[in-house]
C-alpha cells in the first residue's frame, strides 16, 4: 500500500535510497520505493506480506524497485563503514536551525556543516550528512 503522512519521515528519501543501493546497502527493509512507469515518481510502498517486503520484492522487480531503509538502518550501515553521524540543534540562534557532523574512522577526519548552512529540521540535516558520508564509501 502507498502511504502518506508522518510515517514517511522514518524512511530516507528516494534519492538517498538510490545512492545507498549503489554503495552496497542490501539489508531487509520494511518498505521500498517503486516506479510503475517512467513518467511516475517513486512511491514509498510498505507491504504486509513477505512478498512485498524488502529484499524479496526488490529481487523480483530489481529494475524499478529500490529498498527504502529507515534512518536508523542507514546510521547503522554507515557505522559498519567507520562513519559516525551526529545532528544537533543550534540552540543559540533564532529561529533555531540544525547542524550535522561526521566522524570518519580511517583516515580519521571530522567534517561538519558549514557556517552558512542552516537546516530547518533534523531530517534535512541528517539527509545532508548521509549524502556527505556516502561520498566517503568507495
Describe this structure in words.
This protein has four helices and six strands; from the N terminus they run αββαβαβββα. The radius of gyration is 16 Å and the shape is globular. A hairpin with a 4-residue loop joins strand 5 and strand 6 (109-112). It has a three-stranded antiparallel sheet with strand order 2-1-3. The chain is of the alpha+beta class and 138 residues long. Residues 48-52 have low confidence and may be disordered.
Summarize the structure.
The protein has 138 residues and is an alpha+beta fold. It has helices at residues 14-22, 54-60, 71-80, 122-134; strands at 31-34, 43-46, 65-68, 83-90, 97-104, 109-112.
Give the helices and strands as they follow along the chain: HEEHEHEEEH
Q: Biggest β-sheet, characterized? A: 3 strands, antiparallel
CA-based gyration radius: 16 Å
Low-confidence segments: 48-52
The number of E-state strands comes to 6
Detail the topology: elements first, then pairings.
Blueprint: H1 14-22, E1 31-34, E2 43-46, H2 54-60, E3 65-68, H3 71-80, E4 83-90, E5 97-104, E6 109-112, H4 122-134
Antiparallel strand pairs: 1-2, 1-3, 4-5, 5-6
Features:
138 residues, alpha+beta, 3-stranded antiparallel β-sheet, 4 helices, 28% helix
